[in-house]
């Protein structure tokens, strides 16, 4: 079983909050929501699991008008005394019963001692559109695909997992971690894929898993979309998002279609709410709040780079690659960097950002910018020497801080660079496999350049 160390710790932190509210666990299909709650349940005296797609579980919310009666019936059914402590209730597929969604607002007021988590297939919820969770009465937490550190744990690389968390990373660990990351970058972070590879160390059995994941998303469209047009547009979007991943896109004619901007934009935004993708819009300012410019074309970040690799036919090309920056014109490592940054974002409101400057004869584009201690830190993915990095240098000419990140295949290295204007800034050269630990390395960088 994959140990979801990052999200599990977030859940444990939620359980000890003094003002704890019921929790909505968000995430795309098949990212392991049920698995991680089952892991959390081991810390509780009693655990009630409900799947509201099943009539026998849904009836607890349909047969009783009062929440008190629902809870009494649940405890009775599961042979739990009314005086029991530390009871965890997990309501899965909650979108299947609107009365259960409405009940979430009352758990906080009437049963503050219960630990209540709800989850559901967000694509289904959004296409039904009527189910909305109570604002202000619940908390939210996002579950994403398996991170690199979780992958190391899943495949039994405990020594690598220990050493990667040492800051700064010992130089002797670089090559092995880079090799392990290349394999992770090849297969991706979908839990079932990682589970299969951890067991068999074989790529061949992964093919039907990738295909079944896409089929499950397509089935959701068939079951829940209300118009033929919406179904067709969503099907086209799902079938092509992994092929277009890593590109800046236009809605009109997306993936060589005849669909107009409005229809395709609605479809892609629906899939974004279902957490199958992120539409990453650029900022044109390097100071807070750096509001994204929605008039510019967004970068398409999808759920998982492993799915992108499979559906683009890149897996064979990635085997034996020395530097991922060379693969697919840099799209693979750019997409992976975005995915690893997202592993540190646990709120539905968290967004990836990048930066552009559109000026005649002086345009520039940075891969990402990262908010750290009120500073928007630039991130450039760049192989080879750190000399040019035109866009990053342009960004650093006008920013109010002195910190920048270069992501590459080489060793961890901190250096000082000087722009043509004479201004110096600190550059942290960060190996690909350490991007997940970017916040910790920015703290280390600040402590070592003060």
Q: Based on Cα principal axes, name the global outline.
A: globular
Number-wise, the strands total 15
Derived from helix and strand composition plus strand pairing, the structural class reads alpha/beta
Radius of gyration: 23 Å
Report the helical percentage. 40-55%
How far apart, in Å, are the first and last alpha carbons? Answer: 43 Å
- Strand residues, percent: 15-25%
Q: Spans of 5+ residues with little confidence (pLDDT < 50)? A: none
User: Main sheet: which strands, in order across?
Assistant: 2-3-4-1-5
Helix tally equals 18
The number of domains: 3
**For the report, how would you describe the main beta sheet?**
5 strands, parallel
Average pLDDT score:
90
Layout of helices and strands:
Layout: H1 5-15, E1 23-26, H2 33-41, E2 46-51, H3 55-62, H4 67-77, E3 87-92, H5 98-110, E4 115-118, H6 122-128, E5 139-142, H7 148-154, H8 158-164, H9 174-187, H10 191-200, H11 206-224, H12 228-244, H13 261-273, E6 277-280, E7 282-283, E8 299-302, H14 305-311, H15 315-318, H16 331-342, E9 354-357, E10 364-366, E11 368-372, E12 375-381, H17 390-398, E13 403-408, E14 413-418, E15 424-431, H18 438-447
Parallel strand pairs: 1-4, 1-5, 2-3, 3-4, 7-9, 12-13, 13-15
Antiparallel strand pairs: 6-8, 9-10, 11-12, 14-15
Commentary on this structure:
With 450 residues, this protein is α/β, with parallel strands linked by helices. It has three domains: 5-142, P-loop containing nucleotide triphosphate hydrolases (Rossmann fold, 3-Layer(aba) Sandwich); 148-276 and 287-333, no CATH class; 354-447, no CATH class. Helices cover 42% and strands 16% of the residues. It has 18 helices and 15 strands. The protein has helices at residues 5-15, 33-41, 55-62, 67-77, 98-110, 122-128, 148-154, 158-164, 174-187, 191-200, 206-224, 228-244, 261-273, 305-311, 315-318, 331-342, 390-398, 438-447; strands at 23-26, 46-51, 87-92, 115-118, 139-142, 277-280, 282-283, 299-302, 354-357, 364-366, 368-372, 375-381, 403-408, 413-418, 424-431. The strands form four sheets. It has a five-stranded parallel β-sheet with strand order 2-3-4-1-5, covered by helices on one side. The chain has a five-stranded mixed β-sheet with strand order 11-12-13-15-14, sandwiched between helices. It has a three-stranded mixed β-sheet with strand order 7-9-10, with helices on one face. Strand 14 (413-418) and strand 15 (424-431) form a beta hairpin. Helix 6 runs parallel beside helix 11 and helix 7 runs antiparallel to helix 8 (158-164). The longest helix is centred in the middle third of the chain and has 19 residues, at 206-224. The protein starts with a helix and ends with a helix. The mean pLDDT is 90.
């Amino acid at each position: 079983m994959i140990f979801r160390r990052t999200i599990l710790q977030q859940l444990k932190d939620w359980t000890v909050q003094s003002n704890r509210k019921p929790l909505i666990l968000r995430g795309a299909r098949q990212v392991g929501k049920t698995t991680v709650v089952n892991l959390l349940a081991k810390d509780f005296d009693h655990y009630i699991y409900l799947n509201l797609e099943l009539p026998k579980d849904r009836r607890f919310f349909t047969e009783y008008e009062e929440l008190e009666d629902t809870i009494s019936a649940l405890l009775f059914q599961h042979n739990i005394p009314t005086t029991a402590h530390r009871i965890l209730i997990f309501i899965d597929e909650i979108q299947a019963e609107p009365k259960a969604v409405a009940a979430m607002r009352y758990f906080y007021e009437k049963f503050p001692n219960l630990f209540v988590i709800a989850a559901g297939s967000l694509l289904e919820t959004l296409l039904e559109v009527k189910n909305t969770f109570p604002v202000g009465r619940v908390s939210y937490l996002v579950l994403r695909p398996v991170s690199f550190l979780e992958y190391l744990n899943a495949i039994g690389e405990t020594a690598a997992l220990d050493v990667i968390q040492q800051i700064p990373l010992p130089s002797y660990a670089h090559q092995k971690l880079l090799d392990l990351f290349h394999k992770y970058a090849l297969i991706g972070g979908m839990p079932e894929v990682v589970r299969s590879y951890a067991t068999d160390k074989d790529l061949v059995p992964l093919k039907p898993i990738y295909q079944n994941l896409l089929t499950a998303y397509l089935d959701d469209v068939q079951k829940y979309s209300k118009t033929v047009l919406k179904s067709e547009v969503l099907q086209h979007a799902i079938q092509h998002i992994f092929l277009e991943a890593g590109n800046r896109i236009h809605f009109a004619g997306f993936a060589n279609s005849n669909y107009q901007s409005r229809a395709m934009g609605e479809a892609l935004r629906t899939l974004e709410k279902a957490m199958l993708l992120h539409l990453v819009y650029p900022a044109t300012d390097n100071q807070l709040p750096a509001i994204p410019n929605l008039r510019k074309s967004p970068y398409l970040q999808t759920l998982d780079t492993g799915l992108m690799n499979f559906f683009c036919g890149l897996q064979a090309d990635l085997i034996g690659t020395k530097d991922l920056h060379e693969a697919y014109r840099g799209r693979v490592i750019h997409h992976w960097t975005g995915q690893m940054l997202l592993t540190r974002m646990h709120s539905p409101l968290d967004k990836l950002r990048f930066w552009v400057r559109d000026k005649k004869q002086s345009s520039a584009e940075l891969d990402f910018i990262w908010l750290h201690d009120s500073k928007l830190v630039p991130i450039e993915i760049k192989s080879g020497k750190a000399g040019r990095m035109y866009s990053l240098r342009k960004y650093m000419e006008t920013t109010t801080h002195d910190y920048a990140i270069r992501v590459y295949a080489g060793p961890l290295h901190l250096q000082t660079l000087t722009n043509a204007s004479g201004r110096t800034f600190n550059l942290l050269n960060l190996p690909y496999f350490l991007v997940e630990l970017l916040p910790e390395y920015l703290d280390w960088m600040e402590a070592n350049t003060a």
